[in-house]
Amino acid sequence: MLGYIDCHCHISARDFDEDLDDVIENAKKAGLLALLAVAEHAGEFEKIIGLSQRFPGFIFPALGVHPVQEVSPEQQRGASLQDLAAALPLIENYKDQLVAIGEVGLDFTPRFVSGESDKDDQRKVLIQQAQIAKQLDLPLNVHSRSAGRPTIQLLKEQGVEKALLHAFDGRPAVAMEGVRAGYLFSIPPSVVRSEQQKLVKQLPLENICLETDSPALGPEKQVRNEPQNVRISAEFISRVKGVSLQSVMEVTTQNALRLFPRIKPALLP
């Protein structure tokens, strides 16, 4: 199966409202087979499901509550159980269409957490979503900013076996704890300008997937990122690992299909 899979992007973001058809067309021309549309809050669930129906067999939905929630464009806060309560009926409603629960996780960036109680609230939200994923036999698509070790620890404590850690910013040694637990790590195009380069060197290719996190984490700061840029991640991994681009494509795609098996039937001819 020749082509890339973008395992984590926000195709439902307003940034794509004006030219979504072009963005999807450019992604396909760049060799994408599929992309995972992750959610941040219940308010965008219906839009993501709608996009997966508009582009069947190409956009695949993941629904979940992100650890940081927006109050206004200027103000954000940690997720609460109330945020999750709003999301649960929709997750239940669309469970048969989902390929993952996400984007979920922990974010201990100081401006979002003012103390241990905020961290505990995020942990409770993640624990519940980990349990939902296990009940539905779905993988987790996981955010772990400034919380690499606590996130991996919590996933292991909850008995999570299937997880993708996206844009992991923890130390490579911490990531290797995730590798030993069987978790995968997705690399965005921003790797060309970030500390994640050390991570790519250390991770086995069998534990790497590709992502864009579009419209964020592009190769250039402050420039809208697109799914077509997944190739930039692949090219960087190819150089660092000293393997062909073809090998990176094949292995990362097989990794993605192993982690997200619900994608596979749609891609088979």
Structural write-up:
With 269 residues, this protein is of the alpha/beta class. The protein has one domain: Metal-dependent hydrolases (TIM Barrel), CATH 3.20.20.140. The chain has helices at residues 20-29, 45-54, 81-94, 116-136, 148-157, 172-180, 196-202, 230-241, 245-259, 264-267; strands at 4-9, 32-38, 59-63, 68-72, 75-78, 100-107, 140-145, 163-166, 184-187, 208-210. The protein has an eight-stranded parallel sheet. A two-stranded antiparallel sheet has the order 4-5. The mean pLDDT is 96. Pfam families: TatD_DNase (PF01026).
What's the short version?
It contains 10 helices and 10 strands. The chain is of the alpha/beta class and 269 residues long. The mean pLDDT is 96.
Record keyword descriptors for this entry.
two-stranded antiparallel sheet; 269 residues; TIM Barrel; single chain; alpha/beta; 10 strands; 10 helices
Report the radius of gyration as a whole number of Å.
17 Å
Describe the sheet with the most strands: 8 strands, parallel
Distance between the termini: 10 Å
Q: How many strands in all?
A: 10
User: Would you state the CATH class?
Assistant: Alpha Beta
N-to-C series of helices and strands:
EHEHEEEHEHEHEHEHEHHH
| Poorly predicted runs | none
Provide the CATH architecture: Alpha-Beta Barrel
What is the CATH topology?
TIM Barrel
What percent of the residues sit in helical stretches (DSSP H or I)?
A: 40-55%
Number of helices: 10
CATH superfamily assignment? Metal-dependent hydrolases
Which band does the percent of strand residues land in? 15-25%
Q: How is the largest sheet built, in terms of strand order?
A: 1-2-3-6-7-8-9-10
Q: What is the number of independent domains?
A: 1
Structural class: alpha/beta
Mean pLDDT: 96
